[in-house]
User: Fold this.
Amino acid sequence: DMGLVESGGGSVQSGGSLRLSCVGSGFTFRTYCMGWFRQRPGQEREPVAVIDAWQNTQYKETGRFTISRDNVRNTLYLEMTDLKPEDSGMYYCARRPGGDCYMLPSTFGYWGLGTQVTVSS
Assistant:
């Protein structure tokens, strides 16, 4: 069965770090654009970072987060450092058909269930 399963979320204090993981199954992981998105309560889902099939990356904000992928383990990662309270939210992993990427949630057709990140001040 096809699936995306996120893990690694949790509660941390401001300045802390987390590493999110997303394991893909049931599709040819290496050929898809993959992305991380965040949704805060009452707000729309927004892009955090995307990585295409050729390992090119795009970020909404540069400096604190790093997206990467392991095509052998079919796993997408998001390394988050110097976390701030405004980084809190539900983090979703998603895939986009084709290898190239756009920072638009509407172009991603399959989503995981998310992992919660809470950063306290």
Summary: The chain has a mean pLDDT of 96. The CA atoms of residues 4 and 24 lie 5 Å apart. The two ends are 40 Å apart (CA to CA).
